[in-house]
Prior knowledge:
It catalyses: L-histidyl-[protein] + phosphoenolpyruvate = N(pros)-phospho-L-histidyl-[protein] + pyruvate. Its main location: cytoplasm. Belongs to the PEP-utilizing enzyme family. By secondary structure, this protein is an alpha/beta fold. The chain contains 36 helices and 31 strands. It has 6 domains: 6-139, 3-Layer(aba) Sandwich (Mannitol-specific EII, Chain A); 149-274, Mannitol-specific EII, Chain A (3-Layer(aba) Sandwich); 284-380, HPr-like (Histidine-containing Protein, Chain: A, 2-Layer Sandwich), CATH 3.30.1340; 432-533, PtsI, HPr-binding domain (Enzyme I, Chain A, domain 2); 542-628, Glucose Oxidase, domain 1 (3-Layer(bba) Sandwich), CATH 3.50.30.10; 652-949, Phosphoenolpyruvate-binding domains (TIM Barrel, Alpha-Beta Barrel), CATH 3.20.20.60. It has an 8-stranded parallel barrel, surrounded by 6 helices. Helix 14 packs antiparallel against helix 15 (460-474), helix 25 (700-714) packs across helix 27 (757-771) and helix 33 (895-901) crosses helix 35 (926-937). The longest helix is centred in the middle third of the chain and has 25 residues, at 432-456.
Amino acid sequence: MLVLEPQHVHMHQHAGDKAEALQCLINILVEDQLVTPEYLSGLEAREQQSATYLGQGIAIPHGTPQSREYILKTGVRLAHFPEGVVWDGENTIYLAVVIAAKSDEHLQVLQILTRALSKDVNEQVKSAQSSEQIIEILQAQPHSLVLHENLIQTDTFVEDIEDFFWNASKLLKQQKLVDPGFISQLDPQNTIQIQDDLWSISGTGYVKQPAVSIVKAQQPLTFQGSTIKTLICIAANEQLDTDQFNRLMDVLFQPQVQQQLETEQSSNEIAKLVGAETIPDWPSRSIVLANAHGLHARPATQMVNLTKTFNGDIQVSVDGGSFVSAKSLTKLLSLGCQRGQMLTFIAEPNTDATDALEQIILAVRQGLGEEVEAIEDQLTSNSSLNGSQLIEETDSVEISHCGIAASAGLAFGPAHIIKPKKFNYDRFGQSLKTEKEKLEIAIHTVKNTIHQFIAKSTSKDIKQIFLAHLEMLDDPDLIKQVHQGLNHNLSAAAAWHEHIEKAAKAQEGLKDKLLAERAADLRDIGDKVLAVLCNEPEVEEPEQSYILIMHDVGPGDVARLNKDRVAGILTAVGGSSAHSAIVARALGIPAVVGAGDGVLNIDPHAVVLINGDNGEFEVNPSAELIENAIREREYQRLRREEAERHAHEPAITVDQHQIEIAANVGKILDTAKAVSHGAEAIGLLRTELVFMSHNSAPDEKVQEKDYRHVLDALAGRPLVVRTLDVGGDKPLPYLPIATEENPFLGLRGIRLTLRRPNLLRQQLIALLKAADNRPLRIMFPMVGRVEEWRAARAILDEVLQQYPCSNLEVGIMIEVPSAALLAPILAKEVDFFSIGTNDLTQYTMAIDRGHPILSAEADGLHPSILLLIDQTVRAAHANNKWVGICGELAADPKAVPVLMGLGVDELSMSITSIPLVKAQIRTLNYAACQELAQKALLCDSATAVRTLVE
Ligand code: PEP
Ligand code: MG
């Protein structure tokens, strides 16, 4: 990191002109062994391009990128010229800050300098007497207080004061005004009531820049014997502009402001009310900066030169932060924009500036005078489908180029964007009787529509979801809760909406992803009823086949829309196990989910191409890309059909090595489907999902019946059953577990069932009774210590005495690194290992498998995981035991040859993957896979392994 230090300031320098000054600077740099003398040519060339005068008597000479080869070490030196040096014909400098930077570290220096330049320091710089004084002038932080529209949030759903804190801190964090620990210091005891339901809280730790965020709740909350509806959150440090802060507080203490705050709903209006900066509602364009060294002086100068040719105001922000004038060099530099960050330009309407937007975007794309490696090209080289609409978007600052692959296949078509509905309704109703009637009619209407969907639907999965929706609408508890709201004089719409939102929030709060994602179902039915109550028309569907773009797609949305017209689905939120994803898969519609809110800002006339296999998408793809996609889609269809024709043939490599292909199932009824898709066994029966299909804990009898069903459907094929893997992250409603700080590291899997031995015993008995001498394999999940395995085995041995089983193997899941490392010991005692790569990757790489941002980095092909698999396989084979893989990696086409080469004996995967993986294995050569696997073990990253496989 470059820092400005007094010992690097050279006072009392003299130069007759700029050339002499540059020579003087080079002498300093050479003497300090930062550069070789040739760097002078770089400084001169740079000055030729455009003078490096920054303002306030300061210049920042630095070499061209080509002259970087003369830099020995990155550094910065300062020279004070008390008599001044004419720098660019009209401006005289007194201080030169010469930079020798191998990469873009100089942006930090520029940011420091531009902060100083926001004040009038010319005279101070000129008359400075000591190096300390110079540094003090440059580093003096101007006092400030950031408060703008983006820091105000209205209509926020909050349930307690912590929710207020969380939302307020999030706003500050998003704008990079505070560091992540900021919220930790906010204590409800320190809140101060400003007036009525307006409160404030402040924190001084983790503050990067003084700022204020404002959160207004949907409804007032009872708090400390009073109510709170709006929270002012102050992030203060010694740079706080106290004058501005006092002005803000004066405003907030005015009684009429409190009243206006109560009625104002938009953040823009509240911003105006409290004197915060507002974001003009001007035409905007966004683009990702591709310049390797960020928006440093030269490209910034080019931008200023361009924007100044227009009369209208043009402003720019980085990654959704504050807007600054795009005509001011110092303001542009103060943004510190780096490659990959999003610049958003706004232009004053009804002026020539609006025409400027096109030109500015073009200039930025062309590199602002620098050669740029387009971010687009980089993405393309990493992927088959160019997923980089990032390079240019309208009205969007948040579009991410890649979401989560949720349903396989390629699709393209015009964007059909359905934005979250905003319902308008009166908070209070007419009379209890009328509101109750309205609610009843609305629920009845929705139920009728759902019945029609069920009648029309050909997919069993979708029917089941709709049946669940009907059940939700019939839930007496739900109706009772809404009636409570009606009893408090709320309108039917208000009571319904508030309760549904509360219930959905509670559902979302569940740590188990599967259960949490059911919140979408609640909101789905919630919106349907609300739409009837508020008389909201349904959105019209386009005539031709389109890409449906939504915040989240409720199952009802997909099914209601014409399947033949929904070519693909792209959502802002959601995970691959969300119901929308399940429905999309059931209908065979390619889907990319969780792509960020920016997708809702895609131009409604744009064509969108999505790749449901890797989660990438492209806005306005080239004709060539579409042609490729059509070819690829046809190829995929033929390949799948061909693979399905041979699904029942074994998976044998060309050099005659056979591997068992099994299915992962969570629903007992799926067993038959697995067999019909070519499964040679069930390699993982997730019994916790079987449990979840029952409303109360299934007793031994019910369990036995379920397991019997699976074994019957398998007709002699082996069944690998995993004992209950519930715990903090996968709660069963009827198995309460205390809340844990880190559920993934808490009471889970075998750790839980060993503490509830009766539960385990009952499950084991049900399994043994159902087996009837058919091939049964029992395995214990989440084993991390040898003692756990032995304790579980002891319970099984005890049960076996009463319920002997002739065709039983007992093993463990390898999902915890400690178990993989102890495989040589465990292999002596178990009959088999089944490696759960989902959890093994999570625990090895310390990345939450459901993390919205990081989970993509948790790649099971990381060499660290492969080394653990290798160790496990070696240990098992040395003891004549077999090893399966039952995590998602087993069906990853790039992983299949590597896993085979490592010697695993079985691959267990989702049913639909079976035919394709079998077909792939038939094209592989086992000896080559072994060689490949050995090379993969030596790679340094998952990317390297994937490249190797390619
Ligand atoms: C795994 O962790 O890889 C696994 C198969 O178990 P689950 O995904 O059910 O946790
Ligand atoms: Mg697991």
